[in-house]
């Protein structure tokens, strides 16, 4: 896939897509702001969420082992997957062992991240998405473009056309004369999916949280499809990133307040499903938990970047991001679009590819993402940190071992400019001479930069160089102005 600017070039020229995205993100963000404003202690909840995540990440090995013991004691089986290939292989073998060729799925970012549906298809196993938006994406041979609303780029008329054309190929066809009324579309999906739920013998899910003290997994959702997938099949396989663990139920309570208001702008989400291993005569007979690393321990080793692992996938940062609103989710080339994708994907996959090296630049650094993040991830700080890594390279953890990564290609001019700036700022006399020269020659400065700087200045007004630098002005006025009564010249 090409770098972000090239990938976004197509979507930014798609006026229908931009209209869909603008309408959806502005609606969700306004509702979220109202839901959050209802709580007097939102700031304290946010700080508590960040602190719990940071404490858990600092002792991640301890909490994961505690979780494994608790899940095993409750009748579940824990599998450890270092990367996407290993996770896909484990899940494929588990499904094969049941003798089934079909699974139903709860919406899961982790399984999108590892490309599980594709891996299962290669093994002759069909995965049916049961979340409404994921169903739209799957029937449309499409890709998700939003964490919470994967089909945010589709409008009602497009969804009706997809259902009419594609549902029959996957199971129960769409009703004749299907309209684009939301209730009709939801009913068509309900009828189509009900058959899948009732026939399914294997369910695949992710989890929003895992409670270490009890071995309990938690899925938070709005449609009830998750509850069906988690309770009806005989075998349940959950693929969960290792950063989703929280120590106790008391800690979980904080996130069950933060997540619904931040994501769907609800005080409480309609369905919160919890399960702990297996229970006789109730729910799945077999439960497998696949704990996924896939770059997370590399992110954990980075003292600046690790805050991305606090993310609870609420998608609030996407809904306020001016870049996401215009570019859409597909341009990020990852299961994680928007601001969180711009900092998480380059940490999980590295910055070697053209696309991944471009993601930290997919931001105006306006800071709106940080303002809304319910776990206070300073996304602009991590973006700048990753830009430095892209331009300069340097030490990093790669697949669990320390390595020195090379600078990404194509940043030579930026690197040279930053080094020159650094050198000049370290030499005040040179800086002063340069400033004076720039002031004296300002009438001759071009309005557009030459060479690699042209693209930057094509869309920006270059600042006008002042006739006198601040430093010179300060020196001149300090030495010629008579102090007024009460002026304290020694005040710093
Ligand atoms: S980074 Fe923050 S705002 Fe964005 S999805 Fe994650 S938790 Fe939500």
Quickly describe the structure.
With 492 residues, the protein is of the alpha/beta class. It is 51% helix and 12% strand.
Descriptive overview:
This protein has about 500 residues and is an alpha/beta fold. It has helices at about 5-10, 15-35, 40-60, 60-75, 85-100, 110-115, 115-120, 130-140, 155-170, 180-200, 225-230, 250-265, 295-300, 315-320, 320-325, 340-350, 355-360, 370, 380-390, 410-425, 430-440, 455-460, 470-480; strands spanning about 75-80, 100-105, 125-130, 200-205, 210, 215-220, 235-240, 245, 270-275, 285-290, 395-400, 400-405. It has a six-stranded parallel sheet, sandwiched between helices. Strands 8-5-6-9 form a four-stranded mixed sheet. A two-stranded antiparallel ribbon has the order 11-12. Strand 5 (about 210) and strand 6 (about 215-220) form a beta hairpin. Helix 3 packs across helix 12 (about 250-265). The longest helix has 23 residues, at about 15-35. Iron/sulfur cluster binds near residues 315, 374 and 377.
Task: Break the fold down into its secondary structure elements and pairings.
Elements: H1 4-12, H2 15-37, H3 42-58, H4 60-73, E1 77-81, H5 84-98, E2 102-105, H6 109-114, H7 116-122, E3 126-129, H8 132-139, H9 156-170, H10 182-199, E4 202-205, E5 209-211, E6 216-221, H11 225-231, E7 235-241, E8 245-246, H12 249-263, E9 271-276, E10 286-292, H13 296-300, H14 316-320, H15 322-327, H16 338-349, H17 354-358, H18 368-372, H19 379-392, E11 394-398, E12 401-405, H20 412-426, H21 428-440, H22 454-458, H23 470-480
Parallel strand pairs: 1-10, 2-3, 2-4, 4-7, 5-8, 7-10
Antiparallel strand pairs: 5-6, 6-9, 11-12
Helix pairs in contact: 3-12, 9-10, 16-19
This protein binds iron/sulfur cluster.
């Amino acid at each position: 896939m090409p770098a972000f600017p090239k990938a976004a070039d197509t979507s930014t020229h798609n006026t229908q897509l931009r209209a869909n995205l603008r309408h959806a993100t502005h609606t969700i963000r306004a509702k979220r702001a109202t839901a959050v404003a209802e709580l007097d202690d939102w700031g304290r909840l946010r700080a508590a969420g960040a602190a719990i995540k940071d404490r858990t990440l600092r002792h991640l090995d301890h909490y994961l082992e505690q979780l494994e013991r608790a899940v095993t004691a409750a009748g579940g089986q824990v599998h450890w997957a270092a990367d996407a290939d290993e996770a896909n292989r484990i899940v494929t073998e588990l499904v094969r062992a049941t003798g089934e060729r079909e699974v139903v799925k709860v919406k899961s970012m982790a399984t999108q991240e590892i490309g599980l549906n594709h891996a299962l298809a290669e093994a002759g196993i069909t995965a049916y998405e049961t979340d409404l938006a994921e169903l739209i994406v799957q029937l449309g041979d499409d890709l998700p473009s939003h964490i919470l609303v994967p089909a945010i780029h589709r409008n009602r008329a497009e969804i009706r056309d997809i259902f009419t054309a594609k549902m029959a190929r996957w199971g129960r066809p769409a009703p004749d004369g299907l309209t684009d009324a939301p209730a009709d579309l939801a009913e068509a999906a309900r009828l189509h999916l009900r058959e899948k739920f009732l026939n399914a013998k294997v369910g695949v899910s992710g989890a929003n949280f895992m409670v270490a003290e009890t071995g309990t997994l938690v899925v938070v959702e709005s449609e009830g499809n998750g509850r069906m997938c988690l309770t009806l099949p005989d075998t349940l396989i959950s693929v969960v990133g290792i950063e989703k663990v929280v120590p106790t139920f008391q800690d979980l309570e904080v996130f069950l307040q933060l997540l619904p208001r931040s994501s769907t702008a609800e005080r409480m989400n309609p369905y919160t499903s919890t399960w702990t291993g297996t229970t006789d005569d109730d729910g799945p007979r077999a439960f497998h938990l696949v704990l996924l690393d896939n770059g997370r321990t590399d992110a954990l080793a980075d003292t600046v970047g690790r805050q991305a692992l606090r993310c609870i996938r609420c998608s609030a940062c996407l809904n306020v991001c001016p870049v996401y609103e215009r570019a859409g989710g597909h341009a990020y080339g990852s299961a994680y679009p928007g601001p969180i994708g711009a900092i998480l994907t380059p940490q999980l996959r590295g910055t070697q590819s053209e696309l991944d090296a471009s993601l930290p630049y997919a931001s105006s650094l306006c800071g709106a993402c940080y303002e809304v993040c319910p776990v206070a991830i300073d996304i602009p700080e991590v973006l700048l940190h990753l830009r430095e890594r892209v331009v300069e390279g340097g030490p990093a953890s790669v697949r669990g071992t320390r390595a020195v990564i090379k600078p990404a290609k194509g940043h030579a001019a930026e690197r040279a400019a930053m080094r020159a700036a650094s050198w000049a700022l370290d030499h005040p006399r040179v800086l002063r001479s340069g400033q004076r020269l720039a002031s004296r020659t300002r009438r001759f400065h071009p309005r557009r930069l030459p060479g690699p700087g042209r693209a930057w200045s094509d869309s920006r007004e270059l600042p006008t160089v002042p006739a006198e630098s601040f430093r010179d002005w300060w020196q001149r006025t300090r030495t010629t102005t008579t102090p007024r009564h009460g002026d304290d010249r020694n005040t710093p």
